[in-house]
Amino acid sequence: MKSHQPINEQPMSMTQHPMQGAAKFSAKSTKDAKEWLEDLAFRFAAVDIDMTTGWRKIYLYLDEQAAKWWRDNQGNFEDWYSFRKIFEEEHSPSLASIRATAAKDMADRKQGKSEPLTAYYHDKIKLIKRYETNMPEAQQLEWLQAGMWHTTLEEFLKYTITSTKELKNYAIQIGAKQSLLAKIKAEQDEEERTARLVQQAQHIGEQPRYVPPYQRNTGSYADNRSMPNNQWVSQQPPEWHNRCYQCGTFGHIARDCHSHHSKTFGGNEWWYYSLTSPPPITHHNRSQCQRQQAPSDGGHRCYVNID
């Protein structure tokens, strides 16, 4: 049995009540009465309402004019089946409205730029038969030509075709030819792609190799960090290596010297030497000792201005 789906513009969702999307039937509408009843029956079934009893509530889903028809004829409704037959016969669209709709559909149906001629032909023939079952061949050909893509029509007019059967065979031949050309083009593209890959593979060895640039010398004075690529350190005599220029002793460098402390005097930076370190042998910094002071306790402190 063919399953039925709602035809209403508002489809049911998982959270929506089935009857909320049901549209009212209008007596002036061109909508097919049979399809509308099937849609309503589908929604009734979703809420466990059988149409053998539920059909008596259908008047709730009719507009004013259709509801008036219901009230005037409800005495003739014995059951769901009798109501359905009378309702469909009374509200079936007229032949004139059907032909008008079919004519509009035929006029609007155009072949797409890349649409196969066979697909367009079969779709347009269905619309023609819906409009008029026994339309003459010449008139059918006029309708078919009217919707062809302009390049397709130019090719079509080169041949003498006098019937829809001949047009159908022509469409099949054109479709087969287009498919063959598309296949040949795809094969050619694949061959060209393979040839390019082979050519690139052959020239890989001829391409110059990439040589990365040398690492930049990022060393700096940086408080006698003793970096191997430090320009200032590398220019010092060998005897100065591993000797602290803060306290003048060997065995460590300035950054590891525990006897140096930072102290500010009047905005200038001076280096303070503790009594716990051996006295400096000589002043070997870039600037010499500016001031010596012997405190009352007999100790020795040397302040060196390195600016």
What does this structure look like?
- This protein has 307 residues and is an alpha+beta fold.
- It folds into three domains: 18-93; 96-186, Non-ribosomal Peptide Synthetase Peptidyl Carrier Protein, Chain A (Orthogonal Bundle); 231-305, no CATH class.
- The protein is 42% helix and 7% strand.
- It contains ten helices and four strands, in the order ααααααααααββββ.
- It has helices at residues 33-46, 51-54, 64-73, 80-91, 95-108, 117-131, 137-146, 150-156, 164-202, 231-234; strands spanning 260-265, 268-273, 291-293, 301-305.
- Strands 1-2-4-3 form a four-stranded antiparallel beta sheet, with no helix packed on it.
- Strand 3 (291-293) and strand 4 (301-305) form a beta hairpin.
- Helix 5 runs antiparallel to helix 6 (117-131).
- The termini are far apart.
- Residues 1-16, 220-224, 230-236, 261-278, 280-286, 290-301 and 303-307 have low confidence and may be disordered.
- Residues 283-307 are annotated as: Disordered.
- This is CCHC-type domain-containing protein.
